[in-house]
Amino acid sequence: MDGAIADWTAAIDLNPAFAIAYSNRANAYLSNGEVERAFADHDKAISLDPENPDSYLNRANARQATQDLRGALKDLDIAARLRPDDAGIYYNRGNVYAASNNAKAALEDWTTAIHMNSSFTPAYVNRGGVRLQMGDVDGAIADISMAVEIHPNNADYWKNRGNAYVLIGELEKALADFDRALELNPQFIEALAFRGNTHYRAGNFPAALADFDRVIDILPDESANYINRGIIMAAQGDAKAAISDFDIALQLNPDSTQAYRNRAELRQKTGDLAGAVADYQAYLELGGGKRYGDQAQVEARLQALNAG
After folding, report:
1. 59 contacts 82 by C-beta, under 8 angstroms
2. CA 153, CA 177: separation in Å to the nearest integer?
3. pLDDT exceeding 90 applies to what percent of the chain?
4. How far apart are CA 29 and CA 23, in angstroms?
5. Which end of the chain is more exposed for a tag (fewer CB within 10 A), N or C?
6. What b/e string do you get for 278-288 counting C-beta neighbours within 10 Å, with b at 16 or more?
7. Which has the closest alpha carbon to 196: 168, 235, 243?
8. pLDDT-above-70 percentage for the chain
9. Measuring CA to CA, which residue among 150, 146, 140, 145 is closest to residue 176?
10. What per-residue confidence (pLDDT) applies to 1?
């Protein structure tokens, strides 16, 4: 990046009124972590050419990168006024609105971008994601389906639609989408894990176990994967193997409340009452009861175990 800074500095030395050079050097400064110099150059570029929307777009990107979302929105408003037919400006402003937790404005801007460019896939994807968060699952599926139609070889889009289908209980459709995502990218950890969880929800424990075996082969150091596989093994009635997976999960993450909670239940069921008490206590001490809303239930179990 130092080379880019030197190149744009040379261009500015040759032509001190070269506004685009200031914008580009600003981008290089920001990538290099030189924030103050970056904004000084963005301001200079705008002062030299205040009617150029790209200068405001560049500064908006820098402001967003430094969490100045209000400033980014001001710059994007100016850019939209200067070039009102640019779908990309509305898409970017929608992203900033979403980061500012203004879902309504984000949806409006992404919709505007889509009206301007009906093949604007990222706008469909982002709008679908926010619709999903707002509970509009049908709208989300419609948006992600458009993304799939435009870019059928994007594994991420198939995975995202699969997740939406899971939320409305369409497990067969979800599994078909996860299958397609994995055909496109056989090492796609997220799709494997989501498919495994969906098989589990559908009661197909062997298929769920096979998926999490693959997940762990690919990513053996992630505690959550062992918790998920342990839950599946417990559902199959293999308490010993499940406890072993919860043990590994806790070795990888000693603060995993989920691992303690699940292991406690199995220890209680298999007669290891002292182990169950220790795990329930650890779960409560780490704040699991408050986080998951089962504080009273776990305390009652502990009381019953200690009384017995």
Report:
1. no
2. 12
3. 97
4. 10
5. C
6. ebbebbbebeb
7. 235
8. 99
9. 145
10. 62
Contacts made by residues 12-17, CB under 8 angstroms, sequence distance 24+: 17/48
pTM of the model: 0.84
The C-alpha atoms of residue 304 and residue 308 are separated, in whole angstroms, by 6
Q: Is 120 left (phi over 0), alpha (psi -120 to 50) or beta?
A: beta
Which residues, including other chains, have CB under 8 Å from residue 182's CB and lie 6 or more apart?
155, 188, 191, 192, 195
Q: Identify whether the C-beta of residue 208 lies closer than 8 Å to the C-beta of residue 232.
A: yes
Structure tokens at 77: 């408003």
Residue 283 has pLDDT above 80, yes or no: yes
Lowest pLDDT segment from 1-15, 75-89, 110-124, 267-281: 1-15
Q: 232 CB contacts (<8 Å, ≥6 apart)? A: 196, 200, 205, 208, 209, 212
d(CA 252, CA 221) in angstroms, rounded, equals: 7
Residue ranges in the chain assigned as alpha helix (H): 2-14, 19-31, 35-48, 53-65, 69-82, 87-99, 103-116, 121-133, 137-150, 155-167, 171-184, 189-201, 205-218, 223-235, 239-252, 257-269, 273-285, 288-292, 295-307
pLDDT value, residue 3: 85
Asked whether the beta carbons of 96 and 64 are under 8 A apart, the reply is yes
User: In the structure encoding, which two tokens stand for residue 105, read together?
Assistant: 């404005």
Which residue type occupies 155? A
Distance CA 76, CA 26 (A): 17
- Alpha-carbon distance values, 268 to 232, 272, 273, 288 (Å): 18, 6, 5, 18
Q: How far is CA 64 from the centre of its chain?
A: 18
Q: CA-to-CA distance for 63 and 75, rounded, in angstroms?
A: 9
Count other Cβ atoms within 10 Å, centred on residue 67.
10
Tell me if residue 271 falls in helix, strand or coil.
coil
